[in-house]
Write a structure and sequence with these properties.
It is found in: Nucleus. The protein has one domain. It is rod-shaped. The N and C termini lie far apart (58 Å). The chain has two helices and no strands.
């Protein structure tokens, strides 16, 4: 009787842990997507005058912010230093852009 009680207890713990793992994996995917989106926004906004990824060489030669147009060019996957630093981020999404 005790062995079946222990088995059901272990089974319940396994189910609880599996649900928790699934929840944590969903949280991780959501956070990585948020990082990717914020990184995209940052790179797009700062392409014209420089940023922490490519440097600030264009900063002094850029126009005033009111007259400046935002360049939305293709983002080099190598410039995604935050997204590619994650070992669990989906690399296919980064390379496709």
């Amino acid at each position: 009787m005790e062995s079946s009680k222990g088995a059901s207890s272990a089974s319940g713990q396994l189910e609880t842990l599996s649900l928790r793992q699934a929840q944590l994996e969903d949280d991780l995917r959501r956070i990585e997507k948020q990082i990717f989106d914020l990184e995209t926004h940052y790179i797009e906004r700062t392409q014209s005058y420089g940023n922490v990824v490519v440097g600030w060489d264009g900063f002094l030669s850029c126009r005033l912010p009111g007259n400046q147009t935002i360049r939305r060019g293709r983002i080099n996957p190598k410039d995604r230093i935050f997204s590619i630093s994650s070992t669990t981020a989906p690399k296919d999404d980064i390379e496709e852009e």
